[in-house]
């Protein structure tokens, strides 16, 4: 038989699926995949339940129900001072992953170059390649993940069509500064390029840092596609409701891509998310404060038995350097080991690189209940205490 699609055939099953399945098989606490272990706001869930019974369960408008598009536009105004036309500049998608794909589809033709920043969410690279685009990778390095300006500038050229920017960033927890964003803005204008901005963690920012949408910078309103996620903002990741804000001419093409991907998104969930986006600012502030406390709880526990936790200023995740533990294998082997032997699952950071990654960093999700984080810390501490008293041949010590 003739071969199937070569790019998809060569794409491995996502590491999140692999590690979650391994966690289930071994009864491990799953600090790998980034989903909360409690549901989001009760009023938002109640609104979704009520909307199922209001006789509006047929196809909603392609670009989203008017209530949610209006709520997205209003949230842009409230939080960032952006004036957005809800009827022409907002497209609702079935999750932010679909939104990313639709935005890339909207601007990329085969042969166009797209700049991607590593470490990166594992959807970015396969989608760009499936569209026939040429990825130009720029690498951030631990422990501080500083933007390498010379390398980024070198990645832009005559064929550059877009950059895909994730801030707050998964997996690093980096929040790009105003100065870094200004540098990126200059490159976009100089090279007449677009920006697809994955901002799903926009309300999960800590330590006095501030999320600045690239769209708010001078001269970029017409070049930027800004992606948000109800799953992350309201701890309802299974709902898969995303939304894109873009200039009308771009939003029209994004909507055509959306039409050919999923066409519409469940109307009851859309109306419920509109309720959520209308919440008072106190909800969003308490969400970030609660997650910051959980981050600190997990970080303190990991550091007690030898992991070095890197600074994280946003998202659901922290990264730990595990090299001081003396484990003989790489980060993939380490994550498999602690899942099977200690009962705690994590994600190897090498999964976020195309090639030649660092192999001593592990990502943990802290968007779990405090008692679950405590239980995970206890399991890991007990396991490594046992390992430190084992013969060198068992621990890999030299």
Describe the protein.
With 398 residues, this protein is an alpha/beta fold. The protein folds into two domains: 6-39 and 282-387, Alpha-Beta Complex (Aspartate Aminotransferase, domain 1); 42-279, 3-Layer(aba) Sandwich (Aspartate Aminotransferase, domain 2). It is built from 15 helices and 13 strands. The chain has helices at 6-10, 15-25, 42-51, 66-80, 96-107, 124-130, 149-155, 178-190, 230-233, 248-261, 267-277, 281-304, 331-342, 370-388, 392-395, and strands at 29-30, 90-93, 113-118, 134-139, 160-166, 194-198, 224-229, 242-245, 308-309, 317-321, 344-345, 347-348, 361-365. The strands form three sheets. Strands 2-8-7-6-5-3-4 form a seven-stranded mixed sheet, with helices on both faces. Strands 9-10-13-12 form a four-stranded antiparallel sheet. β9 (308-309) and β10 (317-321) form a beta hairpin. α4 packs parallel to α11 (267-277). The longest helix is centred in the C-terminal third of the chain and has 24 residues, at 281-304. The termini are far apart.
């Amino acid at each position: 038989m003739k071969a199937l699609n070569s790019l998809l055939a060569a794409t491995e099953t996502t590491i999140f699926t692999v590690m979650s399945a391994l966690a289930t098989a071994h009864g491990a606490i799953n600090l790998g995949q980034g989903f909360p272990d409690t549901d989001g706001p009760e009023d938002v869930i109640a609104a979704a339940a009520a909307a199922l019974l209001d006789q509006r369960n047929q196809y909603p408008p392609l670009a989203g129900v008017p209530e949610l598009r209006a709520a997205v536009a209003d949230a842009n105004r409230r939080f960032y001072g952006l004036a957005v036309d809800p009827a022409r500049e907002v497209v609702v998608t079935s999750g932010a992953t679909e939104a990313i794909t639709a935005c890339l589809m909207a601007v990329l033709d085969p042969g166009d170059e797209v700049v991607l920043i590593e470490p990166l969410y594992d959807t970015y690279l396969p989608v760009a390649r499936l569209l026939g685009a040429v990825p130009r990778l720029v690498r951030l390095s631990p422990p501080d993940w500083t933007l390498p300006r010379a390398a980024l500038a070198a990645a832009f050229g005559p064929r550059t069509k877009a950059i895909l920017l994730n801030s707050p960033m998964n997996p690093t927890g980096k929040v790009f500064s105003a100065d870094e964003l200004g540098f990126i803005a200059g490159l976009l204008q100089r090279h007449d390029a677009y920006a697809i901005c994955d901002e799903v963690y926009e309300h999960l920012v800590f330590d006095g840092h501030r999320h600045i949408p690239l769209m708010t910078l001078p001269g970029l309103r017409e070049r930027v596609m800004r992606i948000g996620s109800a799953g992350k903002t309201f701890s309802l990741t299974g709902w898969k409701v995303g939304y894109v804000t873009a200039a009308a001419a771009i939003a029209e093409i994004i909507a055509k891509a959306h039409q050919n991907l999923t066409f519409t998104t469940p109307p009851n969930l859309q109306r419920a998310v509109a309720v959520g986006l209308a919440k008072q600012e106190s909800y969003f502030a308490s969400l970030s404060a609660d997650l910051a406390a959980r981050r600190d709880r997990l970080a303190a526990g990991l550091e007690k038995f030898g992991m070095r936790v890197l600074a994280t200023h946003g998202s659901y995740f922290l990264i730990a350097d595990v090299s001081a533990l003396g484990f003989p294998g790489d980060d993939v082997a380490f994550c498999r080991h602690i899942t099977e032997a200690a009962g705690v699952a994590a994600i190897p950071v090498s999964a976020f690189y195309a090639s030649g990654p660092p192999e001593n960093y592990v990502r943990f999700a802290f968007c779990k209940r405090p008692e679950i984080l405590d239980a995970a810390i206890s399991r890991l501490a007990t396991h490594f205490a046992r390992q430190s008293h084992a013969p060198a041949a068992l621990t890999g010590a030299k």
